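Tip: read the tokens left to right.
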């Protein structure tokens, strides 16, 4: 009888490593790509209105919307790491308690965030760049996506991470992808059919909220149907604050959440620093970053997909399989990154023109894209080594790498290079930061593997 792909041990212990990588990573990569399209769709559909205030409201609210992804990563990636290691150690009862603590911890945090946004949006919108024209649209978007939609938005990403932790990547990927596809379908329906003209941003927000709700409902039904699994639970009675569960989860989850937040902060600074060069430079920066998401998010999906495999084999002591997983994942990521670098540099202008047909913006965008394209293969390695430390509980290394790329290096680099080289210098900071971060990541990984090898019995 054929074993189920997400059985307790087959994918983690017995399947060929390349098959395990494919089973776990492909659904995650597909989910990332669908989410990219879904992120493009909201902006594209709102852009069809020709109302700059509506478009501006989407840009203004994006940083605080991303905070919900950071909350999901805090409990989702942290929980996935601890759960997979516990399964490798044959401790499913503790994994179940971790699952429950992360699930309800994420939901409770989403509730608190919703309350905060409900009470603060009136003064927060001007603070984050909203003006009189964009204020009503931003106010409405925040209400539907971050007040009403906080639990679904956090919950569906969180459940995806937690369900993937036992190897159920196909089911996690389907649930998260379903929300993205549904959003693309519902966007024009609510924006241009159901709601009257002038409420297009509200329509986009409602579509996003309903899509995320549908994903969360799917995951809840999935967990109920698979309640016989020793890890899955939706019962609050399984929550435990003992046995260092909160500390273990947050030690890994906090750097992951911080990395998500710092990436958005980095984008904010990049836009602010090229703003003096004109709206064409800002538009070019936005387009280049959007195109580059294909490379960065794909490699992020690849590494997030193999996190449970690395964590399980670290917990079980099968360090040979762990090393093989890292080596083969690294080869795939670097090859894909190099392909992206070549394609982005060759086809930079037509790719940018696909998003904006204006010569000055395309010129800036092409220059920016050709520069940041060099970072793609380096980012793949940096993401991978950071994932290794996340999966194995290396909180110090993970924190260092998470804050280095988009905090200590990227943002100061934009100021320094931008001061000497103008707009080109702002984007040059990205590949420079990746070079330094990757070098540090390699050193940390080599030291980690050397220590692991010394503590590994012969033949393991």
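Filled-in amino acids:
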């Amino acid at each position: 009888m054929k074993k189920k792909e997400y059985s307790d041990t087959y994918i983690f212990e017995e399947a060929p490593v390349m098959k395990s990588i494919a089973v776990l990573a492909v659904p995650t990569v597909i989910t990332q790509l669908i989410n990219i399209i879904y992120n493009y769709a909201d902006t594209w559909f709102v852009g069809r209105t020709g109302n700059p205030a509506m478009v501006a409201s989407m840009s203004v609210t994006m940083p605080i919307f991303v905070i919900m992804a950071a909350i999901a990563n805090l409990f989702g990636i942290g929980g996935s790491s601890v759960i997979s290691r516990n399964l490798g150690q044959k401790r499913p009862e503790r994994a179940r308690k971790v699952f429950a603590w992360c699930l309800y911890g994420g939901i409770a945090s989403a509730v608190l965030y919703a309350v905060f946004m409900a009470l603060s949006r009136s003064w927060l919108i001007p603070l984050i760049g909203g003006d009189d024209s964009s204020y009503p649209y931003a106010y409405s978007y925040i209400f539907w996506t971050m007040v009403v939609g906080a639990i679904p938005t956090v919950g569906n990403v969180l459940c995806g991470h937690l369900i993937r932790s036992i190897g159920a990547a196909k089911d996690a990927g389907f649930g998260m992808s379903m929300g993205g596809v549904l959003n693309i379908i519902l966007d024009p329906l609510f924006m241009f059919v159901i709601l009257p003209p002038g409420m297009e941003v509200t329509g986009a927000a409602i579509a996003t909220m309903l899509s995320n709700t549908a994903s969360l409902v799917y995951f809840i039904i999935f967990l109920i149907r698979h309640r016989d699994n020793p890890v899955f639970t939706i019962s609050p009675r399984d929550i435990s604050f003992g046995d260092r569960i909160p500390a273990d989860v947050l030690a890994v989850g906090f750097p992951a959440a911080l990395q998500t937040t710092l990436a958005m902060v980095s984008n904010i600074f990049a836009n602010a620093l090229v703003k003096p060069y004109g709206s064409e430079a800002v538009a070019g920066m936005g387009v280049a970053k959007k195109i580059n998401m294909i490379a960065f998010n794909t490699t992020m999906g690849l590494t997030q997909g193999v996190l449970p495999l690395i964590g399980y084999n670290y917990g079980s002591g099968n360090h040979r399989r762990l090393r093989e997983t890292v080596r083969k994942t690294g080869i795939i990521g670097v090859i894909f990154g190099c392909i992206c670098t070549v394609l982005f540099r060759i086809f930079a202008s037509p790719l940018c023109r696909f998003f904006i047909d204006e010569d000055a913006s395309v010129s800036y965008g092409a220059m920016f894209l050709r520069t940041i394209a060099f970072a793609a293969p380096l980012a793949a390695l940096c993401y991978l080594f950071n994932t290794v430390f996340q999966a194995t509980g290396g909180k110090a290394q993970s924190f260092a790498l998470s804050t280095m790329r988009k905090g200590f290096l990227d943002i100061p680099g934009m100021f320094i290079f931008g001061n000497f080289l103008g707009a080109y210098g702002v984007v040059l900071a990205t590949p420079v930061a990746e070079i330094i971060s990757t070098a540090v990541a390699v050193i940390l990984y080599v030291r980690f593997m050397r220590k692991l090898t010394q503590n590994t019995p012969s033949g393991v």
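The chain has two domains: 17-243, 258-460. Residues 258-460 form one domain.
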